Amino acid sequence: MVVAPFEQRVSLTCETIRHDMRELARRLENGDESQLICWIKQSELACTVRPLRRHPRYALGRLTLPPETRPLVDDWITFVKVENIRSILSLMHDADLACYRLLGFRNENLLDHLTDAGFQVASCPYEDPYYKKSLPQEKLATLVEVRKRALITFRKLPKPVLIMCSSGIDLLPR
Questions:
Q1: pLDDT of 97-136, one tens digit each?
Q2: Is residue 109, in this structure, part of any structural domain at all?
Q3: Hey, which end of the chain has fewer CB within 10 Å, N or C?
């Protein structure tokens, strides 16, 4: 039996996760909300896009969601609870979180709302490289630092942990 080198196994695993997240995005954009998360390691680690990020009507990038979308965000929370998620590690930064400010959450903050819903919530903000205008080496240094902080945070959180960010694929090694 030939065993692939560690780097090759990691690369294949990351590509599988990227594929699964692209498929999840495609289904959500087509209105199929039967699955909102992708399991990376069953009962320990999952990932998802932020609530309504790929909704067919409200996937507006960084625009503020209208107040009538709050029940949809609460439905998203209910689904995540059904998956027995205990903790949420948010990689969303201020511009992403601002999308939820009109929904009537405590402190106008989605992360506070998730805490109020019973999740243990931690944050390691990461600006999507698509929007960030900086040199490639600066982007890479930021990515490495966020990965380190996210791993340390993940280890401290009750499992299973849901990693939540805008797209769900940018932190994976290429």
A1: 998 999 999 888 999 999 999 999 999 998 766 666 778 8
A2: yes
A3: N
